[in-house]
Amino acid sequence: MSNLAPPSFESATKILREVSYEERLGGFKLSATAGNIPYEFYNLESVVGFLRTDPLDALIRLANRSSVGYIDFAVLARWVKEVLSDEELAQAIQRATSLDKPYADQVVPVKRLLEQRLEQCQVATAKVDQPSTDSKLV
Amino acid sequence: MKGHMGKILRVNLTERKISIIETKKYKQWYGGHGMGSAIFWDLCEKKDISGFDPRNVITIMSSPLTGTLVPAAAGRCEVQAVGLESYPTEWFTRTGFGGRFAPMLKYAGWDGVVIEGKADKPVWVDIRNGDVQIKDADHLWGLDAWTTQKKIWQEVREGQVFGEWATMDTRRDSGRTTQKPAVLTIGPAGENLTRVASLIHDAGNGAGEGGLGGVWGSKNLKAISVIGTGSVEVADPQELMAARMWIRDYGINVDDYKPVVGNFPFAGNPNIGVFPEGWGSRPQGCVGCHRCCRGRTETGMSNESHCMELHYYGAYDIKKHGKITQANMRAADLCQQYGINVYQLMAMIRWLTILAGKGLVGPGKMIDTDLPLEDVGEASFIEEFIRRISYKQEIGAVLAEGLARAAEKYGRLEEDLKSGAAALQYWGHPQHYDGRTEVEWGYGSILGERDVNEHDFNWCCYWTPTVCGLYGVEPPVTAKELSEIMAEKLRPYCDPMMIDYSDEGIYSEPMAKLVAWHRHYTRFWKASLCLCDFAWADFLNPNGPNNRGVTPDGEVRFFKAVTGQDLGFEESLEIGRKMWNLDRAIWILQGRHRDQEYLGEYSYQQPAVPGYTNFEAPYTMTVFEDGEWKYKSVVGRILDKTKFDEWKTRYYKLEGWDPATGWPLRRTLEEIGLKHVADELESQGKLGG
User: Which of A125, B171, B186, B329 could pair covalently with B301 via S-S, beta carbons 3.0-4.6 A apart?
Assistant: First the structure.
C-alpha cells in the first residue's frame, strides 16, 4: 500500500469537507434480489464507510442477504482529484486499480488508502482544533 | 380439476353479508391472478373508479397447487384490486405474498376471498374452517401489524397453548390443529389511507406494491384471520411424491454442496449461517418450500424479512456506521410493523437527500420540514420517517401520497423525472432493475401497471455474469451456452436471439417475443399458479444436467400430478396470454392508451448523472454482436424514444393489438375466449382496429 504524505491543515480541511450537490459522488449497493440501489456521497468519510464487498463465500452462502457496495474507481479517483483536490490520493487509487484485477480484489486496497487518508486528515485537523501549549503561555 | 377446494368466500362489508362463489364458475382461469381478474371483471361494474371507492373489489386468491407438496408453490397468495400507488392512474393491480395464509385458507376449505363494499366501522374477518364471521375491530384499529396478529391469535385460540392440539370442529379426522391462525392485516399506514401501505402476514410477508393496504383501510378492513384443519385433495399423490423426489436433485444438496457464484432460482441457497457481522441465522420458508430464502435471526430482529426490506436502508446504515448495524434490521422490522412499502421509502429517502443536497429541504425551504436528514442511517431517523408517513404528520402527509404525487405537489416532478432524482421508471413505481439496460424488466413494467418484480431473466442474464465479473470468476455457462439453453426452454418461440440485450437487440422482434413470453409465463405460472419468483422459472441450474433447470418440464409435471389435467406448456402460455389480455382490457377501461406507455423521462435523457458517477451500476448482460455471443457491459445506455416506439409497434402486432392505440383487436380476444370482453370494449369505443 502507498504511504501517503500527511496533508497540511488546509488540505485536510478540504478533503474532509462536505461537498456541494454538483460535486457529489455516486455509488450503488448491488444485491441479487433488491436491485441496484443508488446512493450519493457528500464527504470522504461516508465513501469509506460505504465501500465494501461481501467475501466471495458470503456472497454465495448468504444469497439474498449479500451485497456489494460499488463505486467506479476511475470516477472515484477523478472525484478525489477534482473535488477534494487530493492529487496524491487520486494517483494512489489509480495505481491500486490499474492492474487487471476484478473489482472485488480492488476494494480492500482502495478502502485502506481512503482510511489512511481519512485518519491523516482527522489528525491534521484535530491538532489545529486543540489549543496549543504555546498559545496557553501567551 | 383437483387442487381446488370448490368455493370462494364472498364478503360484502357494506351489508355485512357472507356468501359463496363456486370455484367451478371460474375454473377456466385456473386460480390466483386469472381467477382474481375474472372475478374483478364480473363484480366491479365500473372499472375506472378510485382505489378508495367502496365499489372497489379485492380478490385474495390461492391456486390449485397451494397447500400441496409442490416446492416453492404451496405458500404464495395473490391479491388484486384497483390500487393506490401507481401514477397518474390508479391502475387495477396485483401484489403477492408468501407464508402460510393461502394454504391455511385452503385447509379451511376456501380457494379465495373476495371483499366488496365498505364497513361502517373497523372490522376483521374471522374464518374458522367453514365458519365465517365479520367482527368489530375497534380493539385492533390503531395497532401495528404484529400486535394485531398476536391479539387475533389469542382471541381465536383463547385459553389454548400454541403447538398443542386444538379442536376446531367435529370432523373425526381433520378437525384438529396445532397451528395458530394465519392472519393478513394492515398497520397504521393502511388505516390512515396512505398510498404506500402494505398488507402484512406473520413477521415478514409483505404485499407491498400497489398500495393495497390503503384500500383495506378505506374499507375499514383491519384483518382477515383463517384457521383450517382440512387438506387438499390431489389427483395423483404417488406421482406428486415422485415428482418431488425427482426435483430434489435440482435444489441445494447440503451433503454435496456446490458453491457456485451467481444467483439461481430453484438451486438458490437457503438463508443460512452467520452474517459477516457475526449474527447467526437459520432458514425459514413458506409452507412446503425447499428454498427457505428467509431467515430467523438470533437477535430476533428482521425475522422473515428477506428482500428489499433488508436492503433499502442498508447503505445508509453503512455510510453512517461503517458497517451494517441493528439500524438496518430495525428498519426492516418497522416497515413490517407499520405496514409500509419499502420501495417507496427507499426512493423517497434518496429523493429527499438529493434535494437536501441542493439546499431545498429544511425548515422554511421549498420542502419545509424539520425531518433530521443528517441522521439518515440511524434507527431513530427511519422510525421517525415511517411514523410521519404512516400517520400523515408534517412532511409525511405529502409523502403518504407516494413519491410521484409528492414530487408533483412540490412542483418537482417533471424536473426530477428528467434528472432521475425521482427514479420512478414505470407508473410512479421506483426503479428496481433498470429498464434501459435490462429491458424486459422495464418494458414489461410499462406495458403492465407496476414494477414487474419477476427475476426470470434477471438472475441468469444479468446478475450472475455481472457478479462473476466483479469477483473475477467464470460464469457457470458461457453466453453462447446460455443462449442455447434459452432456445430450448423458451417454447414456443425457441429463439436464442430473445436474450440479445445489445443496443440493437433491445428493439428487435426477438425482444418482443421475450417480453410476450415473460408476460404470459408469469401471468399463468407465477401469478395464477402461484409459483414463487425466487424459485421459478428455472432455466439455468448448476445442479441440472448440462446446467439445465427444470423449466418447462417441471411446471407441467407438478401441475398434472396435482390437478390431473394434462396441460401442455405452450397451452399454459396461451392461458397466460388470455389473462394478460383481460388485465389489459381492464386497464383500457381505466384509460390506458399506447401514448401513455413510456418509461420515466430520465430513461431517454440521462446516460450519466451530472457529477461524479456512472448512471447505473455494472450491468453485464448477454449480447450477440459481430456474429458471436458474449457477456458485455451495457452500462450507461439510454433508450432511443423513436426506436422504443417502433419496438412497441412490433410488440403490439405480436400480441394482436392495434398499433395505433395498443388496444386488443376483436379477433385477438375472440380467439382466446374473451368475446364478452371484446363486446364490452366495443360498447365503450375502446376496441382495437
Answer: B329
